[in-house]
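## retry 2 of 3
previous attempt timed out at serialization; input unchanged, resubmitting
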Amino acid sequence: MTASIKQAIADVVGRSKTIMLHNQLTGSGANALFTISGFVGIRVMDYRMTGSAHNKYILIQPAVVMDTSTVAYSDSETSDYVGQPVHLVR
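## retry succeeded, writing output
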């Protein structure tokens, strides 16, 4: 883990974020291609990026994310906990 990745994770602890889910991976490293299958709202609760590989972790929990750039599609079954903010209409 680079110092910038550790800092990026530290910056989002406790904040709601949207992450992409994938169901297929081809290639590896910089040439990896992921097939995006959905989006989910999460909150990073804790992390450990030091020590041996089996002691490193990122602990997340589901969380509601309100994002103005979200495109609502009522028949979608691919995304959870992600939505648009409520708008008052008169």
